[in-house]
Amino acid sequence: FRRSQLISADDFEFIQRFTAAGTEQRRRIAEIEGTQCAQTLLHLVTRIVKESVVHFVLVLIEDLLQENGEHAQIFSVFTRRNHRSQWVLFMPMLNRQEILTMHLAARVVARLAIMSRELLQGSDLGFYLTWLKTHLSVQSWLGGGRRPSSGSRLTSDNGQALHYFQSAASCLQLILRTGEYRFAWVQEDGIS
C-alpha cells in the first residue's frame, strides 16, 4: 500500500509501530500520539477498499477500545477537529456487501456509542437501531425461518449465521447499558 501511495509515509510508519507493539505499548502510543492514531486508523478504514485490510483495521480499533474505553475520545476529538462526526465514518460500513465488515463496524459503533462522550443521536442512532433490529429479527438466519429440528445438524452456513446473529445481539446488549439508547430502542419498537 505504501509503494502504490495509497497511504502516507506517516500512516505507514505509525501502523507498523502500532501493530508490532504489545498491549501496554499500544496503550502508551494511543495516549501520547492520539491524533496520529485516530488519523491513521480512520484513514485506513475509510480509504482502503481491500476487505481484509478493513477487517484488520476494524479489529485494531475494537481492540483499542476494549483495552481502554478512554481511547474512544481520540476518535471523537480527531473527528471534531476535522469538522466531522465519528459516526459518519462508520455508518456507511453497515451497508457494505461483505457481512464480516458490517458486523465488525457495528461492534465498533456500539463500543464508541457507550464509551465516547459524543452520543450517537438523531438519524445515525435511528439508522443503527434499525440495522440492529433487522439483523436480530431476520428469520432466514437459520435456514429460511425454519428452526432446525432436534435431529438436524448445524451446517457451517447456519453456524456462521448464528455467529453474526450473536454479534448483533452483543452490540444491542452493549448499547442498552446507556439509558438514552434504551429509551430510543423502546421508541423504535425494539424487536416486535
Automatic annotation (TrEMBL):
One of its GO terms (cellular component) is lysosomal membrane. InterPro entries: ARM-like, ARM-type_fold, ATPase_V1-cplx_hsu. It comes from the Eukaryota. Transmembrane segments: none annotated. Gene3D superfamilies: Leucine-rich Repeat Variant. SUPFAM superfamilies: ARM repeat (SSF48371). One of its GO terms (molecular function) is proton-transporting ATPase activity, rotational mechanism. PANTHER family: V-TYPE PROTON ATPASE SUBUNIT H (PTHR10698:SF0). This is Uncharacterized protein. It comes from Petromyzon marinus (Sea lamprey).
